[in-house]
Design a protein that fits this description.
The protein is built from twelve helices and twelve strands. The chain is mainly alpha-helical.
């Protein structure tokens, strides 16, 4: 952040057009366990990262306006999208992007930007970015207000407010607390579907929620943005539709993309677990934990490896689909497994 103003999507020069999702403020939050002044100590870095995501705000004047990551919604709310500054094939996947672009000559530049912007999300690729919910060729990432991104930015704004409070700048603390609250309201307005009882991404071009149910919808529970009754309704959808023998499936459709069925990913298991725990929905949370750990152990005993992702629907298989082969060993898989084991011990019945 100090060097380039944000955390790039990877450690090569060609990733400088796009960020990682803004998880930095969660790292700062974790550090508060050891350093009560962490929010102030890393305040300047958090503000710098926030400035990156809000660059172009001054140019957004009317509902529907979108400049880089910033979008003005139909009611005047400010929300964010994923947006890569580049509009050419990704260097790390040039051949595949170029081939797809040749089939979309009239829309080639936007296609490349939408592919790149999906990569910025970390969900590369998923049906949540596809206009038809099925095919990569219909990707329209930059039209979408992602529920997870806006939850992350609300947390960043709250942490910046906390840092300014410690620093003694009450005016700026109030300013960022207000921003976080406005964003929370916007998430509840645009991303919550009261008929389907779940949080969805929002297509600001079509001015309606997308149709794809994904585990991005658990982020408002993880960050405590949802009211208790909303969290309860969402938990019922999670249990009925997402819970599979090996844990939680990422979406409900199999497109051959890695961030879709039948795959489960460790960070999303953890965020769902903690989100449910925030609302004392403990039985479902614990069931998710146990199923995921069983799948980790089952695959480890069969292969001697921890995996990047797992097939949670057919537990006899590893995982399917995606831009690249399944990776052996992965930090987030190892970390979540260790954290879940710790939670198991913590939640043992008292003798």
């Amino acid at each position: 952040i100090d060097t380039v103003g944000f955390i790039p999507n990877g450690n090569r020069n060609y990733y400088l057009t796009r960020s990682q999702p803004p998880f930095f403020s969660l790292i700062v939050k974790e550090l508060e366990e050891y350093d009560s002044l962490a929010a102030e100590r890393y305040l300047d870095a958090m503000v710098k990262e926030h400035n990156f995501w809000m660059d172009g705000l001054d140019s957004v004047k009317n509902p529907g306006d979108a400049v880089q990551h910033v979008v003005m919604m139909s009611d005047g709310s400010i929300m964010n999208r994923y947006y890569d500054k580049g509009d050419s094939p990704r260097p790390e996947a040039y051949k595949e992007d170029y081939a797809l672009g040749q089939k979309q000559k009239a829309n080639e530049r936007k296609l490349y930007r939408d592919l790149r912007s999906a990569a910025e999300s970390g969900w590369d690729f998923s049906s949540r970015w596809f206009e038809d919910g099925k095919n990569l060729a219909t990707i329209h990432t930059t039209d979408i207000i992602p529920v997870d991104l806006n939850c992350l930015l609300a947390h960043l704004e709250r942490m910046i407010a906390s840092g300014y409070t410690i620093r003694g700048d009450e005016e700026k603390a109030k300013q960022f607390a207000k921003r976080a609250d406005f964003r929370r309201r916007a998430i509840l307005t645009f991303n919550w579907d009261a008929e389907k009882n779940f949080f969805f991404d929002y297509d600001f071009v079509k001015n309606k929620r997308t149709e794809v149910k994904s585990l991005a919808g658990v982020f408002p529970l993880f960050f405590g943005i949802a009211q208790k009754d909303i969290a309860q309704k969402a938990s019922e959808v999670i249990e009925k539709e997402f819970l599979k023998p090996g844990g939680l499936v990422t979406t409900l459709v199999d497109t051959d993309q890695q961030w879709d069925a039948p795959n489960g990913w460790a960070p999303l298991q953890w965020m769902t677990y903690k989100g449910l725990k925030n609302y004392q929905i403990d039985k479902l949370a614990n069931e998710i934990r146990e199923r995921w750990l069983r799948q980790n152990v089952r695959v480890y005993e069969a292969t001697g490896k921890m995996m990047e992702k797992y097939n949670v629907m057919d537990t006899t298989l590893l995982a399917g689909g995606g831009e690249y082969p399944n990776q052996d060993g992965f930090g987030w898989t190892n970390g979540v497994a260790l954290a879940f084991r710790k939670e198991q011990v913590y939640n043992l019945p008292k003798k």
